[in-house]
Amino acid sequence: MSESETEPESRPLGPNVRQTAAEMATGDRTDTLLQTDGLVKRFGGFTATDDVDFGVAEGELRCLIGPNGAGKSTLLKLVTGTYEASEGHIYYDGHDITDLEPHERVQRGISMKFQVPSVYGDLSVRENARLPIQRFADGAERRERVDRAIEAAGLTGYEHVDASALSHGQQQQLEIGMAASLEPDLLLLDEPVAGLDVAEREAIAERVTRLNEEEGIAFVVIEHDTDFVASIADEVTVLHNGEIFLEGPIDEVKADPAVQRIYLGEEE
């Protein structure tokens, strides 16, 4: 990388001011919140993501689709810092976060809900909702934030119910509410409706779109259910063999013959 790409510049921006690569990719002069650049992750001799350039705009709701093993979960774990990148860079909100620890990325505004709910079954809904909030708020502010998290999860009236007594869908909603309570700018969801019935899927779709539209949270959602994707997504990115295969509106993606054949299991 050249000096002009890496050297920070402290004076006011002007036509000849040098900027870092992170500023050029995701800084104040662009609507892009997240951008990966040539992102590679290898596990031994297996390449899970291969030269991925993936971007998300501020306030966008984007879905990732593709068959098992396409690299979708790996990509999100690279963004959160769960995995270290083998090559490439991750830019977020004007900063290169490639080498930051996961908790530092959370502090910068990135939150994630993994595929399997990780709520504490022996704690009540309210106690679960309080866990992420108690680290940065107390007193009246904490109570207000907990109330909002429970409302965002659609679980008002369930405050004192043990999480183990909730349905799988309600547990998913609770964890989404908990992740959103950190007030992230970007929330990553890994298959949030897997194993849910139609009503539960509709409830999750309503929660996600509400948080996106009312709170301005940008989302990246991994999901196999293309009907669910169509109900929430602005844009869709298709991954195949660790590479970006196609990007565009869901209707165009679903109509693409290669997508139908390779990803949706239909004949061309």
From TrEMBL:
Q: Does the keyword ATP-binding apply?
A: yes
What terms describe the molecular function in GO for this protein?
A: ATP binding; ATP hydrolysis activity
InterPro entries in alphabetical order: AAA+_ATPase, ABC_AA/LPS_Transport, ABC_transporter-like_ATP-bd, P-loop_NTPase
Q: Which GO terms describe its cellular component?
A: plasma membrane
Keyword Nucleotide-binding in record: yes
Q: Which CDD domains match?
A: ABC_Mj1267_LivG_branched
Keywords, A to Z, come to: ATP-binding, Nucleotide-binding, Transport
Name of the protein in its database record? ABC transporter ATP-binding protein
Organism of this sequence: Haloarcula salina
